[in-house]
Amino acid sequence: MPINIPKELPAREALKGEKIFVMDEDRARTQDIRPLNIIILNLMPEKERTELQLLRLLGNTPLQVNISFLRMTTHESKNVSKSHLDTFYLTFADIKNRRFDGMIITGAPIEHLEFEDVNYWNELTNIMEWSKTNVTSCLHICWGAQAALYYHYRIGKYALPKKLFGVFKHRITDPTIELVRGFEDEFNAPHSRYTAVPMEEIEQDPRLILLSSSEEAEAFIIMSKDAKHIMITGHLEYDATTLAEEYTRDLRKGLDTEIPKNYFPDNDADEQPLNTWRSHTHLLFSNWLNYYVYQQTPYQWD
């Protein structure tokens, strides 16, 4: 089934080229089914790239999904045009009286800041508070996961000795949980961050389940027991080349960034990296949409 996105969204042609079924608003209105309404709060600087990565995953399910994009009004995005934001993005004022079946809050390259020092923290906390009653299930990615753990569960973050950068093996703690249904016992996932969340506090919190962790990357998939919040500390949505491009950018900035671990063939940065996490990424997004959004959301909100 398709994802319903605006006709002029730049990601549309790329998705069609990948044979992902997209539908415009006019055709969607003729479908006599109840589509899922998903709102994506895109905090990443390269918004169009993140749009494509997430839409590719949301379009790989048997469900019709209506997508809306949300932006912050208390922060000026420098890597995307104002016309793109004005055309395709809503503000919290536009949606605060609406309800959504699912929400995705992306990462953001601001982990060096304390949460309260982020210029849009108050706006973000208003959105997260609103989501408690207006969204069935929220999926939080990387810094978005850290923000959710801090706001909803008062679990903070801490600085790592050096950047956690590369592709790491993770293990599942409970394969019977529907979010990880179909996962191998051990699977790969990419990370790119300077901070981490304390695994011991997550394990000790009776409201949370640690579903997956890694010896090097530590806590990875965390879910609240009521399935309201799912926190992913890495970047399963990344393309095969995303870490390579980030590595090149870091070097150009003069940063002392080590080559991403377990990523380039033969650890050679001139080799084309392979995507070794794609199948589990699709599984996670499909399982989230099916078990925690579609099967839990009311057919009609009150």
From TrEMBL:
Gene3D superfamilies: 3.40.50.880. It is found in: Cytoplasm. SUPFAM superfamilies: Class I glutamine amidotransferase-like. It comes from the Bacteria. The active site is at 142 (acyl-thioester intermediate), 235 (proton acceptor), 237. Substrate binds at residues 163, 192, 249. One of its GO terms (biological process) is L-methionine biosynthetic process from homoserine via O-succinyl-L-homoserine and cystathionine. One of its GO terms (cellular component) is cytoplasm. Its main location: cytoplasm. Signal peptide: none annotated. Pathway: Amino-acid biosynthesis; L-methionine biosynthesis via de novo pathway; O-acetyl-L-homoserine from L-homoserine: step 1/1. It catalyses: L-homoserine + acetyl-CoA = O-acetyl-L-homoserine + CoA. Keywords: Acyltransferase, Amino-acid biosynthesis, Cytoplasm, Methionine biosynthesis, Transferase. Belongs to the MetA family. This is Homoserine O-acetyltransferase. The gene is metA.
